[in-house]
Design goal:
heterodimer; A: 115 residues; mainly beta; seven-stranded mixed beta sheet; four-stranded antiparallel beta sheet; B: mainly beta
């Protein structure tokens, strides 16, 4: 079956631009996570959705970051007024149930470069 | 102190040897632990999960957990060049988020 998909795969933005990153989780998966991975580092948690409810956004680095999952399937991570420090790979993961104890399946990521 | 500590490596082992990857974590409340493998330019993929103290074996992989010492390890037997990747240790945090270490880069030399 289809895995987690993300688009675009690569995004180049000028500093100050807004960007929107899309995640299509595995069909029927309840949980959806966003992570940010800087070069040479492990992924860092950004936010978590259980269906359409955003239950944890403690990892969002600033109020420029906003995520939504309005119908409990596709999710969008939006970054306003991008800064150079936002350059990273943004990973989306989904899992079948809530709570996270089951496998999180990762998408291919979106590599964001802010010039 | 970081929540999850891993030696960044690189750890270099000859083909056929045992690779030993280690991880310590700070949250004593963590109950579930995951090892992910990440090839360069790719996304992480789960290779092992462990929830109880002791060893868990799956093919060439063995995960070891010691909650009293807050220590998790991954052993790879008969290492192959295709095992060359970054291995990420990830305890499960509250709300189900994974808390990743920075990863250990493993190089298996033919």
């Amino acid at each position: 079956g289809a895995g987690v998909s993300q688009s675009p795969r690569y995004k180049v933005a000028k500093r100050g631009q807004d960007v929107a990153l899309r995640c299509d989780p595995i069909s029927g998966h309840v949980s959806l996570f966003w992570y940010q991975q800087a070069l040479g580092q492990g992924p860092e948690f950004l936010t978590y959705f259980q269906n359409e409810a955003q239950l944890d956004k403690s990892g969002l680095p600033s109020d420029r970051f906003f995520a939504e999952r309005p119908e409990g399937s596709v999710s969008t991570l939006k970054i306003q007024r991008t800064q150079q420090e936002d350059s990273a790979v943004y990973l989306c993961a989904s899992s079948m149930t809530s709570g996270g104890a089951d496998t999180q399946y990762f998408g291919p990521g979106t590599r964001l470069t802010v010039l | 102190q970081k929540e999850v500590e891993q030696n960044s490596g690189p750890l270099s082992v000859p083909e056929g040897a045992i690779a030993s990857l280690n991880c310590t974590y700070s949250d004593r409340g963590s109950q579930s632990f995951f090892w992910y493998r990440q090839y360069s330019g790719k996304s992480p993929e789960l290779i092992m999960s462990i929830y109880s103290n002791g060893d868990k074996e799956d093919g060439r992989f063995t995960a070891q957990l010691n909650k009293a010492s807050q220590y998790v390890s991954l052993l790879i037997r008969d290492s192959q060049p295709s095992d060359s990747a970054t291995y990420l240790c990830a305890p499960l945090g509250n709300t189900g988020k994974l808390i990743f270490g920075q990863g250990t880069t493993l190089q298996v030399k033919p």
